[in-house]
Amino acid sequence: MKKLLIYLKGYERETVLAPLFKMLEALFELFVPLVMAAVIDTGIAGGDRGYIVKMCLVLVALGVIGLVCSITAQYFSARAATGFATGLRHALFSHVQSLSYTEMDTIGTSTLITRLTSDINQVQSGVNLTLRLFLRSPFIVFGAMVMAFTVDVPAAFIFVVTIPLLSIVVFGIMLWTMPLYKKVQGALDRVLLLTRENLTGVRVIRAFNKEEEERARFEDETERLTGLQKFVGRISGLMNPVTYVIVNGAIVLLLYTGAVRVDSGVLTQGQVVALVNYMSQILVELVKLANLIITMTKAFACGNRVQSILEVESSLRPGSFMGEADGGEESGKGAPGGPQGQGNRNENVPSVRFEHVSLTYAGAGNEALTDINFEAKAGETVGIIGGTGSGKSSVVSLIPRFYDATKGRVLVNGRDVKAYDIGALRKKIGVVPQRAVLFAGTIADNLRWGDPGASEEQLWEALTVSQAKEFVEKREEGLNFQIAQGGKNLSGGQRQRLTIARALVKKPDVLILDDSASALDFATDAALRRALAEMGGDTIVFIVSQRTSSIQHADKILVLEDGALIGMGTHQSLLENCRVYQEIYYSQFDQNAQDGKNPQDAQRVRNVQAGKEVG
Fold this sequence. Notes:
The chain is α/β, with parallel strands linked by helices and 615 residues long. It folds into 2 domains: 2-310, ABC transporter type 1, transmembrane domain (ABC transporter transmembrane region fold), CATH 1.20.1560.10; 351-428 and 508-610, P-loop containing nucleotide triphosphate hydrolases (Rossmann fold), CATH 3.40.50.300. It is built from 22 helices and 14 strands. It has helices at 12-46, 49-98, 101-107, 109-133, 136-151, 153-200, 202-207, 211-237, 239-263, 269-310, 392-397, 422-427, 443-447, 456-465, 469-474, 492-505, 522-534, 548-551, 571-577, 579-588, 591-595, 599-610; strands at 320-321, 324-325, 351-359, 369-377, 381-386, 407-412, 415-416, 429-432, 441-442, 482-483, 510-514, 540-544, 556-561, 564-569. The strands form 4 sheets. Strands 8-11-12-5-13-14 form a 6-stranded mixed β-sheet. β1 and β2 form a beta hairpin. It starts with 11 loop residues before the first helix and ends in a 5-residue tail after the last helix. Residues 319-345, 596-601 and 611-615 have low confidence and may be disordered.
C-alpha cells in the first residue's frame, strides 16, 4: 500500500491543507466546552444576560468558523483523493495493457476488473477519510484529555484510563478484520467471474438449458460472499457498542466524581459540564475513528491487491544479445540476425523466420509447440493447418509476441522479436484473431484503429479487399454506420470481414488471419483469398484455417500435429507425402472425386480448388 502513495504526487498542497483545516476545526471545537462552562458559572449563576448573549455569539462564531474550515478541508481531501484514484487507475490500466497473454491468463480477467473498479474506489474512500479524520480524531481525543487536565487534574485521570482502553478495542478489531476483508474481495472476484461468464455465454447457457444450474452456482457464490461480509460485519459491528459502553461508563464515573467534588466546593457545575462535554467529544470522535479504521482496513486490503498487480512483471521485456539492449526501433541493427548474423539484413524487406522454436504455456506440463523451423519471405502466403489443439494459433501468436518462445528464436524482418520495442514490432504486424471484436462507434472509427490517419479512399480499398464493401454500401450511413458494443448489430461474417479490413488499413508487413474466415461462406472466402493474392506488394500473409480450400493456393503450407511441424510444402506435395494433410483434405472432399471415379464430384472439386464454386 505504501508504494501507491507516489500517486499523490502533484497533490502535496491538498494533502497538507486538508488535515490542517480539519485541525483548525477541531481546535475551535475544543473551546466550546470552556465557553459553555463560562456561560453556566458566570452568566447563568450571576444572572448576567448580556454576558450570556455575548458568549452565545462566541459559540455561533466558533460554529461558523468550524463549518468553513470543515468545507475547505472536504474540498481539498476530495480533490486529492480523486486525483490519486485517477492516477492509480490510469497506471494500473496502462500496466495491465503491458502484460503479455501469459500474465493475463494467470491473473484472470475478473480479478483485474475488480481491482480496476471496486478496489480502487475503496482506496479512494480510504484516502479521502484519512485526510479528513486521521489527524482530526486523535487530535480531538488527546486535546480533550489535555483540556480536561486544565479543568481538574484528578477527574482528568479518568480520561487517561479510558483512552487506552478504547484504543485497544479499536486497533484490536482493525487487526482482526484486515485479513478478512481480503477474503471478502477474493469472494467478490469469484462472483464477478461467474457474472461475466454468464453474461458473455448467455446464448450457450440457454441453448443447453442450463439456466437453473447457473442460477444455483451464482446463488452459492453470492451466499458465500454474503456470509463472509456478515462475519466481518459482526466483528466490525462490535466496535460501536463496545466503545459506547466504555465511554458511557467513563461518563458515569466522571459525573459521580464531579458531583462529589462540586459538593466539596473544588469544582463548579460549569466545569463538570465541560468535562462531560469533553468525554462526549471523545465518544463521537472515537466512533468516527472506528468507522475510519474500518474504511482504512478495507482500503489497505484493496490497496495491497492493486499493488500486487502493479508488481507483476511483464514477460514481454526487450531482449538483448551481443551485449546490446533494446531502446526502440533502431536498437539491434548491428546484428539483425542475432549472434550468428543470420537472417535478412534489410529490415525494409518483410520476412518471418522460426529457428527451432518451442513454447510451453505457464503452468502447463508439456510443450504446446516443439522445434518449429520455417521461413516466410516477402510476398508469400503461408497456410497453417492441423487438427484441433495442434498449435496453429500458438505459432502465429509468437510473431507479434503475444507469447514468448521458451526455446529458439522468432525473427521478423531479420531481427529477433525480443529485440524490438513492442510498439514498433506490432506496427509491422496486422492480426485478425479468431474472435471478431468490434467496438462501439462508427465503421470508420473501427477501421482507423489500424491507421488513425487513413483516408476514406484507403478505408474503402480495405473494405473492397475484405469483401465488406457491398454490405457497407447498403447501409444508409455508409462508413458512419454506428456499430453496437461488440458488433452485436452485425452478423458473424460481417464482423469478421470488418476486422480483416481493419488489419488491412494498417498496411502491415505481416498479415495474420487466425481462422478469421470461419463465419464466411465458401464463395466469400474464395473471393477474399483472390483479393488478398491480387493485393501485390511484399506483405507476408499467414492464413490459419481448418479448411484446405482456404490454404491450398498458399505458397507454403505448414501442417501441425500435437505442436510439431510434420509437413511443409505446397498443396500438391503435401497431398502426396503428408498423411495428416491427406486425412484433413479427404475428409472435406470425397476421395473418389480425387481419383476421378465420380466425374461430377471431380469437376466440383476442381472448381473449389480454383475458388470458383462452393458446395
